[in-house]
Amino acid sequence: xxxxxxxxxxxxxxxxxxxxxxxxxxxxxxxxxxxxxxxxxxxxxxxxxxxxxxxxxxxxxxxxxxxxxxxxxxxxxxxxxxxxxxxxxxxxxxxxxxxxxxxxxxxxxxxxxxxxxxxxxxxxxxxxxxxxxxxxxxxxxxxxxxxxxxxxxxxxxxxxxxxxxxxxxxxxxxxxxxxxxxxxxxxxxxxxxxxxxxxxxx
Amino acid sequence: xxxxxxxxxxxxxxxxxxxxxxxxxxxxxxxxxxxxxxxxxxxxxxxxxxxxxxxxxxxxxxxxxxxxxxxxxxxxxxxxxxxxxxxxxxxxxxxxxxxxxxxxxxxxxxxxxxxxxxxxxxxxxxxxxxxxxxxxxxxxxxxxxxxxxxxxxxxxxxxxxxxxxxxxxxxxxxxxxxxxxxxxxxxxxxxxxxxxxxxxxxxxxxxxxxxxxxxxxxxxxxxxxxxxxxxxxxxxxxxxxxxxxxxxxxxxxxxxxxxxxxxxxxxxxxxxxxxxxxxxxxxxxxxxxxxxxxxxxxx
Lengths: 202, 299
Ligand SMILES: [Zn+2]
What we know:
The complex is a heterodimer of chains A (about 200) and B (about 300). Chain A is an alpha+beta fold and about 200 residues long. Chain A is built from 5 helices and 13 strands. Chain A is about 20% helix and about 35% strand. In chain B, helix 4 (about 60-80) packs antiparallel against helix 5 and helix 8 (about 175-185) crosses helix 10. The longest helix of chain B is centred in the N-terminal third of the chain and has 22 residues, at about 60-80. The radius of gyration of chain B is 22 Å and the shape is elongated. At the A-B interface, helix 1, strand 5, strand 6, strand 11 and strand 12 of A face helix 3, helix 4, helix 5, helix 7 and helix 8 of B.
């Protein structure tokens, strides 16, 4: 039945196309930027942040943390940049910054303390997990990259395949690319907490 | 034709095969009603289910048009949630302690940010699936789309999608993305045309202050008198919608009072612009009509 409708609709096309060029249409002259995903680095006021997924993170930790510890590790850099960077006092505490990974469909994963991740793997790997975790302290213009560990435990509906997370919902699978996902956290700048978010590069 | 659709409505929920035009039309109508009733979680679920796993392959132009409108409705659903009634949970608890392993924290709060991210995913789908289906214009479109969508030109729907993306990126503070979107929409540079576009594309009230704020940030470095109008409109719409950010609100107020090179005054009585009042406190002239003058003469 629907096919007949469409044939009729196509038949109408030629007739209506010439009659309605609609120059008064407010959207006629717009062009639409094709932005995609989120930038993997950002300057927001004085705070510069960057995040990336490393598919070879097992070389960093000696173990595949997705398979062995049920966490998604993301390397994060946070530093101060711009006029006033030397006077500003910004504080970062991974245990109190409410870090979250927001997947492309809006599913959120919380960050785990490094010690909790370390407890999920062999001791020699756990030491690296703790050592390479994003550090607590005052931000400086030379902040170093550190890792945040996002918890996949309890999310049996999620499957990580390289830079893509597959999310099973109602018997269907959503393919969620990490470059359409966000890392968010709070930074305390000059005594005031502000939220920061950045996309995830590779 | 409508009576044929009633049995299809019952079929639609049981059937997981790709939707035909009539089934999809029913789903779109139902989803539209759910969005209007603010049953946003149900709307999102229905739309995603009706798009199905094979949404990448539309059977024909009619299906393409329906798929596009479904994606636009998903954008509407998630931005209505982000800037109004969020339902997706945050991973963090109200105390901010995503860390607390004791699991005695209260339930997590809903996350507007999660909805912005989800909305932007559907923005990408809507752009990819955009079809300017003149072929489906006219009488037969009602068999593809419910009445409420039937009069919406796909191009206007796409403009709405861009405005929604602009609001989300402004909310997430991705200024570069805001700039990229604004670059193609010079109509947003004039306040009255911007107002008209937001009205004609039925942009939700909650998004408006963010869109005006995004345009304000675009003009602030180069054209302060123009930026002023957008700052005032952002503050006006923020006062109505209450979905605006505290940082952004402060930024606008500080810019009007201090950071702009100009002092904005009432042309009738010279009263300085007050960011919490939208008309002159003395003569009631709208703040939008205030004019820029040199800052150094400000009292
Ligand atoms: Zn006055």
